[in-house]
Amino acid sequence: MNTNPHEVLSNIVQQLIITHGDLLSVQAAVERSALGNAFHESEIANLQKLDHATQFVDAITTILRNLMTLSLWDENVAITLDEVLNDVCLGSIHGLFLGKEKEPHSPAGEMDFF
User: Fold this and answer.
1) Phi, psi of 85 (to 5 degrees)
2) Could you tell me if 85 and 93 are in contact, meaning their C-beta atoms sit under 8 angstroms apart?
3) CA 22, 25, 31, 34 torsion: positive or negative?
4) Is the pTM above the cut of 0.70?
5) Are 63 and 84 in contact (CB under 8 A)?
6) For residue 57, with 0-12 CB atoms within 10 Å meaning exposed, 13-18 middle and 19 or more buried, which class applies?
7) φ, ψ of residue 104 in degrees (nearest 5)
8) Phi, psi angles (nearest 5°) of residue 99
9) Do 84 and 62 meet the contact criterion of CB atoms below 8 Å apart?
10) In sequence order, which residues have a C-beta less than 8 Å from that of residue 33 and are 6 or more positions away?
11) In the chain, is it the N or the C terminus that has fewer CB atoms within a 10 Å radius of its CB?
């Protein structure tokens, strides 16, 4: 079966969009079930990991969408990181691509429950 790189990226993006939606649904379910309950510190850390995973999937999806709009298949065409990272909100992803690697996830500050 033959395919092209754009089609492969498109399929990956579609699966990531579905996964992102699933993660948002899980966050909403946790939020609804947590109303009025106190969380243990380890549970809060796990909720932050879930939130980060959701944001990470969204960021990678955005990067792949951006790559699909560029002329990647011509080796003579240079792309900029600004083009690749356009609309990516997660700072740790920017850091990875810009060589200012941060910890993959370091909870800090206040936490909004989804």
Assistant:
1) -95, 5
2) yes
3) negative
4) yes
5) yes
6) buried
7) -55, -35
8) 80, 15
9) no
10) none
11) N
User: Which residue is listed with tokens 């990181």?
Assistant: 81
Q: How many CB atoms lie under 10 A from the CB of residue 18?
A: 12
User: In the structure encoding, which two tokens stand for residue 103, read together?
Assistant: 């910890």
Extract the tokens encoding 31: 């939020």
SS (H, E, C) the chain: CCCCHHHHHHHHHHHHHHHHHHHHHHHHHHHHHHCCCCCCHHHHHHHHHHHHHHHHHHHHHHHHHHHHCCCCCCCCCCCCHHHHCCCCCCHHHHHHHCCCCCCCCCCCCCCCCC
φ/ψ bin of 21: left (φ > 0), alpha (ψ from -120 to 50), beta (otherwise): alpha
Q: What is the pLDDT of residues 42-100, one digit of tens each?
A: 888 888 999 999 999 999 999 999 888 887 667 777 788 888 889 998 888 888 888 77
